[in-house]
Amino acid sequence: xxxxxxxxxxxxxxxxxxxxxxxxxxxxxxxxxxxxxxxxxxxxxxxxxxxxxxxxxxxxxxxxxxxxxxxxxxxxxxxxxxxxxxxxxxxxxxxxxxxxxxxxxxxxxxxxxxxxxxxxxxxxxxxxxx
Length: 130
Description:
By secondary structure, this protein is of the alpha+beta class. It contains five helices and five strands. It has a three-stranded antiparallel sheet with strand order 1-5-4.
């Protein structure tokens, strides 16, 4: 059963400007320790901005699908966007975020980009028990 759907768009140019300003604080607030190596491995400011905007959109889409703002004590670093074994982006949630869900759920994620915008959609699905 679907219990939540969230979508978000992020302006890639905004992230490009932040990266050019060397706004490391933004990166540290947005990315987890597990996400940081993938970000640092990217070459080129434009590609880094696209990637960062996509991660931001994915995390915002999850919060919208959950139907809540980030509760006290939970930050963007508690939501990870990591590649699965095939390279597809998947969400990994910290214990604090998982506690916000009433029961175990599956989160489906899709990220897309245009020249100017990164977009993400998240669908949260709960198993129906008979």
